Amino acid sequence: MTCDMQKPQNMVIVIFGASGDLTHRKLIPSLYALYDQKMMPDHFLILGVGRSSYTDQAFRDRMMQGVRSFSELNHLNESELLQFQQSIAYQQLDPSKAEDFPRLKIRLDAWTEETGSPANYLYYLSLLPSAFAEIASNLAAVGLNHSTDGFRRLVVEKPFGYDLESGRKLNDDLHKAFEESQIFRIDHYLGKETVQNLLVMRFSNGIFEPLWNRNYIHHVEITSAESIGVEGRGGYYDGSGALRDMLQNHLLQVASFVAMEPPSSMDADAIRNETLKVLQSLKPLRNEDVANHVIRGQYVGAHVRGNWLPGYREEEGVPSDSRTETYVALKFFIDNWRWGGVPFYIRTGKRLPTRVTEVVIHFKPTPHTLFQRDHVCQHCNTLIIRIQPDEGILMRFGMKQPGAGFHVKPVHMDFHYTELSDQHLPSAYERLLYDAMLGDSTLYARADAVEAAWQFVAPIQHMWKTDPGQKIHGYPAGTWGPEHADGLIEDSCMGWRYPCKNLADDGDYCEL
Ligand SMILES: NC(=O)c1ccc[n+]([C@@H]2O[C@H](COP(=O)([O-])OP(=O)(O)OC[C@H]3O[C@@H](n4cnc5c(N)ncnc54)[C@H](OP(=O)(O)O)[C@@H]3O)[C@@H](O)[C@H]2O)c1
Q: What share of the chain has pLDDT > 90, as a percent?
């Protein structure tokens, strides 16, 4: 714990859906990492709840297995682990049954009384979204939503709806039981150090901010590539797709951090007001924009490094005629004074050649080209903000190649985030859980921002649903997505950045 870090107040963390994947893979290892760094409260209870039957000890054993398998700490301290697990317990409860909630209240009240702590309860909804509203209402029915003796907070996992209407309804339903200030919507991208560093980089350095506008920036590219496919979660993914799973939430949030105006302070609402303004300034997409500036794709089988990778439609749980996109690329504009006329491009997909998430700021070329254009243009003049993996910042620019003539060679200055400190880099869930315990909602999505993002993607969802003429392009697994996406960036000199080459050695690009 560094000197400016606060210790959260004593509390109970109640995890709904505690028998699930997320709890033992991310939540408990992250809570343990906070414990290891002395960032947990002096007294706390992690109470897993769900329909599955566990004794306290059986649940602890499962959670410890999660810590051992998924902890990102360099070392595990056995005696500390033993202490930590004493603060974990389980209660069987069906979240859809209101009659089960008085038992939860009795258990929570008993803990408060035993420890002499305020009734601080942090509820984490780590289960399917259709259960969220019911749980909020069942908590409210037994008075577990408000208290004068402690805080009540509700952390909600994504997805926050599947379109504008359902997103609004979910917000309305949650607001019947909890106030907006009590609701923490997780967007784990905002928990990543490099996304937060965007604020520091932009607003603590005099170098970048004067250039950060339409006068100097040619276009902005945001890429989030995954090399994996659906990894056995085809059934879940087929109901979602790249637009809902990545673009509407994580990548539009990242875009809003890139494009926001300086906030008046580092206060949560000051920052979130500015990111909201960006989302509200997204130029609405007309039908012709969807047709011309949105490319969707689906991976098809291909050989990658000698191994055959099946196509999306061959994955378990995926219908053989699925039209769910595993790739989406989009060109859009932000209609405000800073960004008017500057194209933003986002692309995201599965089974691409590598795993990388990065923001690339392409600065405008010089007004007059003194040197041979081919040498100057290829990704000189760019600032690359690497969000994952190997978080860092890379600046590329042109330098004279030693020797005769004036040949320009792209060179780069490279900063890796790990060089900044030998401390453990907190995982996104660690950071977000810690903030929720402190009541800091800066890195959580607010209801109005979620709705603004749904509003922006609504025309895409509508066209894809209603217009059978909207193409879905096949791309071989291991490539950078449909070739059609290359044409989105009209300037041939300043196209997408390809951090590595295509890997597939055969397979056709085709229309599905
Ligand atoms: N896993 C991830 O990596 C990941 C990443 C990002 C976001 N998320 C989000 O995090 C949440 C949890 O993900 P998860 O992967 O842990 O989910 P999960 O394993 O599919 O389910 C979590 C738990 O929910 C309970 N559950 C299942 N069906 C239910 C129903 N019909 N009614 C009530 N409870 C039900 C089950 O517990 P009981 O049977 O014991 O009640 C299950 O163990 C989801 O909203 C997901 O979208 C997950």
A: 70
Ligand 1 atom 32 nearest Cα: 131
The rounded Å distance from CA 467 to ligand 1 centre is 33
Q: 23 CA distance to ligand 1 centroid (A)?
A: 9
**What's the rounded Cα separation, in Å, for the pair 280 and 285?**
13
Higher pLDDT, 421 or 24: 24
Per-residue confidence band for 2, with pLDDT thresholds at 50, 70 and 90:
low
Closest CA to 37 of 81, 10, 63, 2: 2
| Residue 132 near residue 125, CB atoms below 8 Å | yes
Domain with CATH 3.30.360.10 in the chain: 193-359+438-511
pLDDT tens-digit readout, 202-256? 999 999 989 999 999 999 999 999 999 998 888 889 999 999 999 999 999 999 9
> Which of 14, 15, 16, 21 for mutating ligand 1's site (highest number of atoms within 8 Å of CB)?
21
- The class that CATH gives domain 193-359+438-511 is alpha beta
**Percent of the chain whose pLDDT exceeds 70:** 95
Spatial separation of the C-alpha atoms in residues 252 and 39, rounded to whole Å:
31
Write out residues with Cβ below 6 Å of ligand 1. 17, 19-23, 50-52, 95-96, 126-129, 131, 157-158
Residue in 447, 467, 393, 457 with CA at minimum distance from that of residue 200: 393
134-181 pLDDT, tens digit each = 999 999 999 999 988 999 999 999 889 999 999 999 999 999 999 999
β-pairing, 294-300 with 217-225? unpaired
Residue located via tokens 């700490």 = 73
CA proximity to 21, closest of 69, 57, 56 = 69
CATH 3.40.50.720 in the chain, residue ranges: 11-185
E strands, 17-135, in order: 44-50, 88-92, 121-125
Q: For ligand 1, pick from 22, 28, 47 the residue to mutate: most ligand atoms within 8 Å of CB.
A: 22
Average pLDDT in the chain: 91
DSSP code per residue over 175-199: HHHS-GGGEEE--TTTTSHHHHHHH
Tell me the two tokens of residue 125.
């909804």
Alpha-carbon distance of 355 to 224, in angstroms, equals 8
Model confidence pLDDT, tens digit, residues 12-62: 999 999 999 999 999 999 999 999 999 999 999 999 999 999 999 999 999
The hierarchical CATH code for the domain 11-185 is 3.40.50.720
C-alpha 454 – ligand 1 centre gap (Å) = 23
Is 362 designated active site? no
Q: What is the pLDDT of residue 287?
A: 94
